[in-house]
Amino acid sequence: MRFKPFLLDAWLDQYEHDIEFNLGASTGPTWTVNDILALGDDEVRHRFLNHKLIYGRPAGAGSLREAIAEMQGVPMECVQVVTGASEALVALMWLAAEPGSNVILPLPGFTTFSALPESLGLETRFYRVRRENGFRIDVDEIKQLADAKTKLILVNCPHNPTGATISDADMEAVHAFTAERGIQLVSDEVYHPIYHGRQTKSAARLPHATVISDLSKAFSIAGVRTGWMIEHDARRCQQYWTARAYFSICNSTTGEILSEVAIRKRDIVLKKTQEAATRNLKLLDQSMSEHRDLLGWIPPQGGMTAFPWLVSGDDARPFCQAATEHGILLAPGDCFDAPSHFRLGFAAAGDNFSQALDRFGKFVKSWSAEMVTP
Ligand SMILES: Cc1ncc(COP(=O)(O)O)c(C=O)c1O
After folding, report:
1. 222 Cβ closer than 6 Å to some ligand 1 atom
2. Cα of 190 to ligand 1 centre, how many Å?
3. 216 close to ligand 1 (CB < 6 Angstrom)
């Protein structure tokens, strides 16, 4: 068994640590341990500094599960804590990997969606999130791909990298279809609830859906490595518990305490991400309108990433490579199987974003001047 190369993380890891303006990241404004602890009370700070560094519980700390359950509006028994949404994806694909089976995924999409099932010998089928279609997630296309061997259909809303969202009615239609066919519906909601246009409700309300989410994106505290699964089916919950006990046993107890504080104070934490994303998206919109001759784009409806493209149709990797020489990190679209595109994250640079866009604008102008020079 082999994994295909993780082009995105290899690219980000090469540049992210010393680039001046990081527009490659898909997260939001940063937080320190101190910032998070300052949101809590003295009791939490005492608990944090004095907790024993022993194994936690495989399902996740009880009080963290309670906080997640309250936020998601489900009973605590439906919550399985995992090490990032990444571990949820490992468990789900592992459990789906029966010989001859297939899974249905978005393209472009987060590479792990396809890399894991492909490494396990599952057939991957893709519905397109096309720019020609305004990055619409097309329910009919999803349905047409399914057959008797389909184990799982994954919807990612808000979608990485395009920022597309799906309407509640369309999500309910996919839910009804999967429930009728006995296919598992997985809703990846790591960018929920950051929206700029049409909002989508969490699929946690839908009895046959499996929700995966985390604190890495909308909450922007990826360093705690907290993710979770919401599952209404008790038999599946038992399977996740067992998978998790084998894969990683439990989360870091230190991260669990910080995670609980962030979730209980989510009004403050999510507001910071939403404000940065809203403010920066306006600036990005202006900047994009100045480069229409060279760059196409569809403003994202949610999340913290946009997926512009070179109108020439050329491969955007040399463009992204040249941008790094101007201190700007973007992510080449070939990391998402869409080579003429690039991903631009607009919430991680925080208050530096307008400076980053100035530099980006200068770079685009110099790039276009080079293009017309014989
Ligand atoms: C759509 C999506 N799902 C899941 C993940 C996994 O993130 P984590 O393991 O930090 O929760 C990512 C990370 O980029 C992502 O973009």
Report:
1. yes
2. 7
3. yes
Q: What is the pTM of this model?
A: 0.96
Model confidence pLDDT, tens digit, residues 196-229: 988 999 999 999 999 999 999 999 999 999 999 9
342-345 and 305-306 strand pairing: antiparallel
H-helix or E-strand spanning residue 249: none
H helix count then E strand count, the chain: 13, 14
Distances (CA, A) of 250 to 5, 89, 227: 27, 16, 11
- Interval 303-362: pLDDT, tens: 999 999 999 999 999 999 999 999 999 999 999 999 999 999 999 986 789 999 999 999
Number of the ligand 1 atom closest to the C-alpha atom of 109 = 1
For helices 353-372 and 266-289, the axis angle rounded to 10 degrees is 30
Could you tell me if the CB of 90 is within 6 A of ligand 1?
no
The Cα 177–Cα 154 span in angstroms is 13
Please give the pLDDT value at position 349.
Answer: 83
Distance, in Å, from the CA atom of 338 to the CA atom of 347, rounded to the nearest integer, reads 22
47, two tokens:
């608990």
In our burial notation (b when 16+ CB lie closer than 10 A, e otherwise), range 83-97 reads bbbbbbbbbbbbbbb
Distance, in Å, from the CA atom of 64 to the CA atom of 79, rounded to the nearest integer, reads 10
Our answer on whether the CB atom of 108 is closer than 6 Å to any ligand 1 atom is no
CA distance 46 to 267: 23
* pLDDT, position 183: 98
- What domains can be seen in the chain, in order of their start residue? 7-32+267-365 (3.90.1150.10), 50-265 (3.40.640.10)
Give the position, in ligand 1's atom list, of the atom nearest the Cα of 213.
11
Residue 227 CA: nearest ligand 1 atom is 11
